[in-house]
Specification:
Blueprint: H1 3-9, E1 28-30, E2 37-39, E3 44-48, E4 60-65, E5 75-77, H2 81-90, H3 92-97, E6 103-104, H4 106-111
Parallel strand pairs: 4-6
Antiparallel strand pairs: 1-2, 3-4, 3-5
């Protein structure tokens, strides 16, 4: 076993994954909520919605990119309310999208049925 295998299984960077580790066939992404890795097809991509006005006081709208083809930076999250709550608590969505200020996640909550 090489050095890479040893470091990924133990040490300060080892994490308890809430989701099983996927086989590495196809694209793999990391959920911004639980930090678990999964297939791209098993995660939802969140992007900033297009805004017609530049009102800074209003929170920017985040939408679910169902086809994973909208332009711009994306944040990936498992389609579970628990992962979205973790991402909100950790303030991971604005960090992943590289934006400042509050974000409106109501459309994402509605998509998840919450």
């Amino acid at each position: 076993m090489g050095r890479r295998g040893r470091l990924s299984e133990s040490g300060p960077r080892a994490r308890l994954l809430t989701h099983p580790v996927p086989s590495l066939k196809g694209p793999v992404r990391t959920c911004v909520g639980c930090r678990g890795r999964d297939q791209r097809s098993a995660l939802l991509r969140l992007v900033l919605g297009s805004s017609t006005d530049d009102d800074v006081a209003e929170p920017r709208r985040v939408v679910v990119d169902v086809r994973a083809s909208l332009p711009g930076r994306g944040a990936w999250v498992h389609p579970e309310p628990r992962c979205l709550e973790l991402a909100e608590r950790r303030r991971a969505v604005p960090r992943a999208l590289r934006v400042d200020g509050p974000l409106d996640l109501s459309e994402v909550r509605a998509h998840l049925g919450r």
